[in-house]
Each structure stands twice: as C-alpha cells, then as structure tokens.
Amino acid sequence: MIWVFLSAVGFILYTYAIFPLVLGLIARGKTMPKPLPTTPDNPLPTVSIVIAAHNEKKSLPGKLASLEELDYPHDKIELIIVSDGSTDGTAEYLNEVFANHANKTCIHYEQSKGKCGALNEGVASATGDVILFMDARQVVSPNVAMALVPYLADKSVGAATGELILSEDSSLEAANFGMYWRYEKWIRENETRLRSTTGVTGALYAIRREDFIPNILGTLLDDFETPISLLKQGKSTLFIPGAYAFDSANDDLALEFRRKVRNLAGNWQSFMKNVWLFHPLKNPVWWQFCSHKLFRLLVPFAMIIALVAALIGSLSGNVFLQYMLAGQMGIYALAGASYAGLPGTSNKLLNFLKVFLQLNAAALVATVRFFGSKQAISWR
Question: Which pTM value belongs to this model?
C-alpha cells in the first residue's frame, strides 16, 4: 500500500507543483511574442466587440462607460450586445442607450439559448475583421483592444487573451481565490512563451472573425472550445499580460462552488468532443494540456486513493501510513473547522486549505455529475 500512497501523492504534487516549476524552467529565457507593428501595409483592423448578457442591467452602465474609454480608434469599433432571454429590462435599457448609434446594436430574444448561442448570434451580425469577446459584468482597461488585436496580424496566432484581475479586500476566501488566479496566470504566461496556452480568459479575448466556428448549443465553455478549435488548425493562443478585465473575487463559497462545478463539467464536455487532444502526435501542446487541464480533474481521485491506501496500510500496522493517515485526517478536520467558521480558524493557511479542498471537491462532483448525465446545460 505504501507505493500506492506515494504514487497518489506524487501525482498530486506533480500536477500542482512540479509541472508549473518544470514549465517555468523550460520557458525561462524565452521571450513573450511581440505584435506586428502597425504600418500602411498592416493597418489596424476593424473590431466587433461581442458580449452575451443575461439579466445584466445593473452591470451594463459600468461596462459601457469602460468601453467608451478604449484607446482604439472608435470609428473602427462596433459593439454588439446579445440579450439572451433577459427579463430584467436589459434589452430595453440597451435599446434606449444605443438609440441613434449606428455602430451599437442590441440583439434580444425571449428564449435563452445559453452563452454560446448568444455569442453565435452576435458574431453572425458582426462586420469587424476581429471579434473581441467580453463579458457584461467586468469593466476593462482602456488598452485592451490595442493590446490584443495587433497580435492577430500574425496568421499563426489564432487568439489573444487578456487577464482577469480580482479584488481581494472582502475576505480571506476571496484573497485565496485571487492568489489562485495569480498562480494560474503565471502558468498561462509560461505556456505562451513555449507556444500556446490551453484556454482563454472568457471575459476578454480576441480572434479573427474568419476563424470563428459557431459552438454547438449547450456548449458550456466557449473559452476552451474556441481556442482548441484554433489549436487544431495549428494556430496558437497567446496570454497577454497587461490587458485587464476587472472583477471582484467571490467570497460566497457556495456560489463559487457551483460555478466551479459547471466550468469543470464543461472541461469534460470539451474533452469528450475533442478526443484528438489526448493524442501526443495530434496535439502540439499535449504535455501542457494533460498536466494543466486533465490532471487537475483527476487529482481528487488521487486524494481519495491516498486516503484509502493510508487507511488500509494503517490497519495492517504500517507505522508510516498510520502517520500519513493521521496527517490527512488532521488536514481535513482543520479545513472543516475553518469552513464551519470555528474560533481561531480564520487565517490564511486554513483558508487556503479550505479553498484547495473546495476546488477539488468541485472537480469530483463535476466528474461524477458529467459522466452520470446529471450536469445541467446552463450558462447561468
């Protein structure tokens, strides 16, 4: 049992620590890609900003104000917001604001099609050379279009994505989710240095309109399906630091858990639809895909194996595994105490354990629900 235990622990350590370190070492010294300079022979393309919105009336004033501050030539920008079955007055608000603006359009339909269906509708109405996808909730930095769009002048680049900046001033839970995002962005930047990252920030990414392949209705993760469709064509996805979408880190663990379950189930959905990703000769970023995307979904099973192996070994009298069992049970007990809000458990270490265990619990639930055909197909 000791080798089973050590193998399971080794798998967990590889996924969350060894892979990022090896990736960083391999990428060390490699420079980030540079955009092609704008010249008379390579002018700035026209851009269609496409946003899917479901009941986002409260978020839209701030979003629209941030778009007015973009430093990209405004005569080269059109804005299309798709109201996907909104019932809170989103469409009415947009129609009023967009009145007399030929380059601003609201598309509304009563029956929700989901986020991917809304994006399909928006792109179908777009006229720009480049599609800049955004979410309705987050405001963006003024430079996002100028920071991302010029990379697409290189035909080997399929997508350029910005970064999500999370505020961390409401709770320790929110701070730890923010720390997780910084860790994630570091991995994506190193993947970009090597060739291509394995996903985009759904709140902010750009592709050429001619490269867009409409997603099947019910697709959960456009921000994974779109870049891998480009990867299949041999085109890379670049993570570009400095192009920001701003959001608040969520201190509601229950809500964050539901979102994480949905997103991780969406990963399984995409994996099953794109089995070529598992083939090292067909997937040019096979190592990164397996280590970064696939293995994280398998970590909770390794955690269960480690616990069961330690339990069986302990019952057989193995002293080492008895200590390992006690250590695991102690970690789970401390995380549970922190989750319950017991006195003395509100500190960074215990909140980190709580967030880590919650993320892996979400991966376990997502896997069970997806393969048990119980995952609701909804973007909300």
Answer: 0.88
